[in-house]
Amino acid sequence: MSPTDSLVRPAVRWSLGHALPSTVMRNAARRGDLQGRLVDRRVAHDHAALRAIADEVRSSGPLHRARYALMTAHQPVVREVLTSNDFRTGVFDAGDEGVLGRLGTWAADPAAFGPLSPPSLLVTEPPQHTRYRKLVTRVFSVRAVEGLRERTQQVADELLDDLEAQARPGDGPVDLVERYCALLPVTVIAEILGVPAGERDRVLAFGAAAAPSLDLGLGYAEFRRVERALAGFRAWLAEHLAGLREHPGDDLMSQLVAAREDGVGLSDAELEATAGLVLAAGFETTVNLLSNGIVLLTEHPDELARLRADPSLWSTAVDEVLRVDPPVLLTGRVARRDTEVAGVAVRRGSVVTCLLAGANRDPAVFADPDRFDVGRANARDHVSFSAGRHYCLGAALARMEGEVGLRTVLDRFPDLALERGARRRPTRILRGWETLPARLGV
Fold first, then answer.
1. Model-level pTM?
2. Where along the chain do its domains lie?
3. Dist CA 193 CA 185 (whole Å)
């Protein structure tokens, strides 16, 4: 690659992935387009505004025709799109013949690494995806995740021991995101990846830097920081995986390195992509689940009292948090061929935006959908983990960490009170808290 190309191609990648979409959506929002309004940063975390958009989308039928995409907030239609073989993930496909498709192919970095770069499970399709996911799912099984519960509980207890030991009368509030919600999942992820204790701060830094790669509308400087962070993590990971091959441990990553199907294991690129996905997606979404859950439960003391009276409701409560305030606002699919969804014709190449937060409050599925109910019988029918072949690989892990993490902090500090100054993340697609000041009541 020439020096000029090395400067121009990143700028093109950023333009296609962030600058162009956010500019187009801003302009569309000014004209009242629902999709444009949906990804406006001022709207993305405003529950009332999101609810109004979802209701409007839903009222126009199974699929709403926005300026640049079809949209749906009907839970059954979202499931139909996400499970259909007529749709694929990703914006650009190798077969795209349009100007943007050709430009995207030219600008692509063959060494690109991240949760949205091939061969990540998020953007691969059958038959590669089928073989790949089968091996990964065998290792990251529900049983394997449950085996991590005791260690997750230990980590949560240790983090809260530190918080309590440092809390003194008269001290200011502590930031629960920085001191707990972020540290719990990254510690668990580091152990899943077999990372030595001395290198876990490095993994935390990688996770924090890589997480924005899942969002839309990054500025150029942040986009390049994310690319550099991911490249640094990949370089570190290559050495780490080589070490696991020579000296495997009992961690899940060592098991994945050794996994075989008909004598064939995952390639180095697939192993690296899986580790990157576990880090970026598992870190960011679980931080958001924990922070969103703390806010919801402290805002609904009667529901928190129900949990204290009946701890068997905790697993349902985590799904209700995921339903009411999901860590991811929306996802999209592209039609691979002319098809039909809920009786509506969809042309090849059409984008369908699935409004996960809206589908989670579909009144045809969830009675009194705006009510937070930790005993809701069908809370698990939410689509916050997507559906179909791209159903979240870490769903069982997130549920377990959410249950352990939320129950432990709220049991340890029954008088925990949130303070003024809480701030949402400045992201469009990812939904969580950047800071969450609280007094522990000790």
1. 0.92
2. 69-90+111-439
3. 12
